[in-house]
């Protein structure tokens, strides 16, 4: 176990959007952020993306999973070797892997979650201790296994010197939010954080663009901005049982796929995208009703903050200021990768990474396996 001195750690995220892998360096003792280091990004090629996409929804041992894991490991090994040249002092790596399937409620079989990519392989290749498989033990102990970034959001609020409750919103393929009260001493203290997935965010937009326009994304939200949201479709979306559940709660990337694509199928392309944007924003606003008190502001990270239609819809629906995390001098493209550096240090120090208020697990859990290079 590491001592409590701060160490440089690298963290990675390969998110549900499947655009590529983010990696970032962080100086932390697992509680306090002491500095941000270099970061790097490696997109997946179209071929690599297809291999991973073919394994979506699959569990270990099923067809295509090994090939997907190999793509994930290779991409991470390449990116992390590069980042280690910029930050050779990094002692530890937090490797999230790529979520292929997530069923913590056991809706389609046993309760389980599946991140492709083997930390043992990466530890050997990179010659560093690798912390990985962050979600399984939380799910095994009854939690949702997600979201995992909230304890890092708490550290970010402290780092930014905030003195009142705020929310951090990640708009990836799926959205997740953390209500943070930085007046509390630590994230594991009851009342310090409340976190949950808000609902689908960019995934339905990307899926629609790919299926109807042969493009990866609605850049800047331009097409959505030219359309009109269908209020009846948004109301039907909000009638989904997910929105009746109390947090903590989490989502599989594709849980809303069929419903949303069917709801917008009769609409024009611009109206369909405007409606999907309105659904993502409405889901966040619905989630905000669970906050114990109104936050001073919602700070947004993840690719969705580049979508002007989505940011405008959020500003319209939320009862407080909405701003990108850059307003706090944080990097909204690297926040998740930095979170896994922070979480790796927490695991190495034996500190919890999730708790009742973030995943619904009944006790504090330090989730993650540590693999040490054997040098063979
Ligand atoms: N310039 C842009 N304009 C509009 N949307 C964008 C832009 N840049 C990124 N996005 C959206 O953000 C998505 C990527 O966001 P991000 O990298 O935060 O997701 P992720 O980490 O893969 O997902 P998750 O957080 O759910 O795991 C893209 O797929 C796209 O939909
Ligand atoms: C199972 C899984 O990989 N979930 C992701 C996904 O993408 C966003 C949202 O859903 C979030 O809960 C989670 O990722 C972030 C990093 C988290 O665990 O905090």
From TrEMBL:
Pathway: Amino-sugar metabolism; 1,6-anhydro-N-acetylmuramate degradation; Cell wall biogenesis; peptidoglycan recycling. It catalyses: 1,6-anhydro-N-acetyl-beta-muramate + ATP + H2O = N-acetyl-D-muramate 6-phosphate + ADP + H(+). Transmembrane segments: none annotated. Keywords: ATP-binding, Carbohydrate metabolism, Kinase, Nucleotide-binding, Transferase. It comes from the Bacteria. GO terms for molecular function: kinase activity. ATP binds at residues 15-22. Its EC number is 2.7.1.170. InterPro entries: Anhydro_N_Ac-Mur_kinase, ATPase_NBD. It holds the Pfam family AnmK. The keyword Lyase does not apply. It is an enzyme of class 2 (transferase). SUPFAM superfamilies: Actin-like ATPase domain (SSF53067). Belongs to the anhydro-N-acetylmuramic acid kinase family. Catalyzes the specific phosphorylation of 1,6-anhydro-N-acetylmuramic acid (anhMurNAc) with the simultaneous cleavage of the 1,6-anhydro ring, generating MurNAc-6-P. Is required for the utilization of anhMurNAc either imported from the medium or derived from its own cell wall murein, and thus plays a role in cell wall recycling. This is Anhydro-N-acetylmuramic acid kinase. It comes from Rhodobacter lacus. The lineage of its organism: Bacteria, Pseudomonadati, Pseudomonadota, Alphaproteobacteria, Rhodobacterales.
């Amino acid at each position: 176990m590491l001592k409590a001195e701060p160490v440089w750690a690298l963290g990675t995220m390969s998110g549900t959007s499947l655009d590529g892998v983010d990696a970032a360096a962080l100086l932390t003792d697992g509680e306090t952020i002491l500095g941000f280091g270099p970061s790097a990004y490696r997109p997946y090629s179209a071929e690599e993306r297809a291999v991973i996409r073919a394994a979506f929804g699959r569990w270990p041992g099923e067809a295509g999973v090994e090939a997907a894991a190999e793509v994930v490991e290779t991409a991470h090994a390449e990116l992390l070797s590069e980042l280690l040249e910029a930050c050779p002092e990094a002692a530890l790596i937090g490797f999230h892997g790529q979520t292929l399937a997530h069923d913590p409620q056991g809706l389609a079989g046993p309760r389980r979650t599946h991140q492709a990519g083997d930390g043992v392989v990466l530890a050997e290749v990179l010659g560093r201790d690798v912390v990985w498989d962050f979600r399984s033990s939380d799910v095994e102990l009854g939690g949702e296994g997600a979201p995992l970034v909230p304890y890092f959001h708490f550290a970010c609020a402290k780092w930014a010197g905030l003195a009142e409750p705020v929310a951090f919103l990640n708009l990836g393929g799926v959205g997740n939010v953390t209500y943070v009260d930085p007046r509390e001493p630590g994230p594991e203290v009851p009342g310090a954080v409340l976190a949950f997935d808000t609902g689908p965010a960019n995934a339905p937009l990307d899926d629609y663009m790919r299926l109807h326009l042969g493009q990866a994304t609605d850049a800047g939200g331009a097409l959505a901005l030219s359309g009109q949201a269908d209020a009846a479709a948004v109301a039907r979306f909000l009638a989904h049982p997910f929105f009746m559940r109390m947090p903590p709660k989490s989502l599989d990337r594709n849980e809303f796929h069929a419903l949303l694509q069917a709801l917008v199928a009769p609409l024009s392309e611009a109206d369909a995208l405007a409606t999907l944007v309105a659904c993502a924003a409405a889901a966040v606003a619905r989630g905000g009703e669970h906050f114990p008190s109104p936050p001073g502001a919602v700070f947004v990270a993840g690719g969705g903050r580049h979508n002007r239609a989505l940011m405008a819809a959020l500003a319209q629906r939320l009862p407080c200021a909405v701003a990108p995390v850059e307003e706090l001098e944080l990097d909204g493209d690297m926040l998740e990768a930095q979170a896994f550096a922070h979480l790796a240090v927490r695991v190495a120090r034996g500190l919890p990474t999730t708790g009742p208020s973030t995943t619904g697990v009944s006790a504090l859990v330090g989730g993650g396996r540590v693999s040490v290079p054997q040098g063979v």
